[in-house]
Each structure stands twice: as C-alpha cells, then as structure tokens.
Amino acid sequence: MDKMKDFFNNLAEDWDNHSKGDPEKMERIFKTAELKDNSKILDIACGTGVLEEFLLKHNPHSILAVDLSEKMIEKAKSKYKDPKITFLCENVFNLKNEKFDFIIVYNAFPHFLEPEKFIEHISTLLNENGQFVICHGMGRKHLNDHHKRTANEISLGLKPASEVAELISSHFNIKSVIEEEHIYIVYGTKK
Asked: Global pTM?
C-alpha cells in the first residue's frame, strides 16, 4: 500500500495537467449508470477531484471522495469548497459504517490488487439497489499500454469489460457493459 501511496503522491502536483475529465464522456458514464439526483455518492480513488465538477451537476445529496494519497487529497481540497463534498485521505477498506446510493471508481480499478475482496467490500457500502460503476475515460488497450509504461508495479491491468462484469456479478445485477476504443463502463446494481 505504501508503494501505491508514494506513486500517486509523486504525481499529485502535475496530475491536473494530464488527467482532465472529458465532459461528453462523463455525461455518458453518468447516463449509462443512471445517476440520480440527491444521491449519496462515494468516489473511490478520487485523485485531485477530477469527477467532482461533473458529479455536482447531478445535484448530489453528498459526495465522499476518498484517496490513499495525501497530496492528491490536498490538491482536491484546494479546488473545491462546496459543502456537499468531503475529501478524505483513507483506504476505502477502512470505510465500514456508511452507506451510499452510488459508488464510482473512475480510472482506478486496475490499482485494486485484490479485486474480489474490493468488490465484496463495495457491496457492503451500498444501500439496497445501490449503483456501482467501474469506468475509464479511455479504452482498455490504451490504458493497459499506459500502465505498462508508467505503473506496471501497481496495476493488474484492465481486464475485458465482460470479465469484470462476470467478476462483480456475484454481488451486482449487471445493467451495462461497454468497452470501446475511448471509453470503458461496467455498471450494476446491488443484489
């Protein structure tokens, strides 16, 4: 875990220069994942808060944005003052007593090195019929090529969306599986 934290702490200062959310992709992700107004949202591995500007457009009840990297969280806090958002430097596995309507993992799923354990934990954090989306603002091939060059030691690589859907299907009803050249979405609701 320290290797992961150190890796992202080292990237935090420059993160926003190369990791920006594409508004069209964000809206496609949220539409596909049926994001509803007034949702209690958990943004896992939020980095510098890339998603928050887009999530706020959907009138959330609240957003808890968590990341392991202190420096990513510091940067995120400096960008947002909205009272609906709470940024927390924490390992998501330490979240136990909260429940959410919508959980999103954007551009981060390959960094969860025990995906089965991660999926099981996520299911405990969702309300009944809660929504869970794993998504990337780039295609699988592009992401895996990028991780081989820059993050090989802290990434499992992104599996085909159909395999990820199968992985989460023990805890989630699969609603949508999209794998295209420039976007990747696996969406399900809690069983």
From this structure: 0.91
Full DSSP string of 85-128: EEEEES-GGG--S--EEEEEEES-GGG-SSHHHHHHHHHHTEEE
**Sheet hosting strand 62-67, strand order edge to edge:** 85-89, 62-67, 40-44, 100-106, 126-136, 184-190, 172-179
CATH fold for the domain made of 3-12+22-190: Rossmann fold (3.40.50)
Say whether 190 sits in a helix, a strand or coil: strand
Q: How far apart are CA 83 and CA 126, in angstroms?
A: 22
The three-class DSSP label of residue 44 is: strand
**Domains in the chain: boundaries:** 3-12+22-190
Q: How many residues are present in the chain? A: 191
Q: What is the torsion angle, in degrees rounded to the nearest 10, for the CA atoms of residue 46, residue 180, residue 37 and residue 126? A: -60
pLDDT per residue as tens, the chain (191 positions): 577 666 665 655 665 566 777 889 999 999 999 999 999 999 999 998 999 999 999 999 999 999 988 988 999 999 999 999 999 999 999 999 899 999 999 988 988 889 999 999 999 999 999 999 999 988 887 676 756 566 656 666 789 999 999 999 999 999 999 999 999 999 999 99
DSSP summary character for residue 62: E
Residue 39 structure tokens: 């949702």
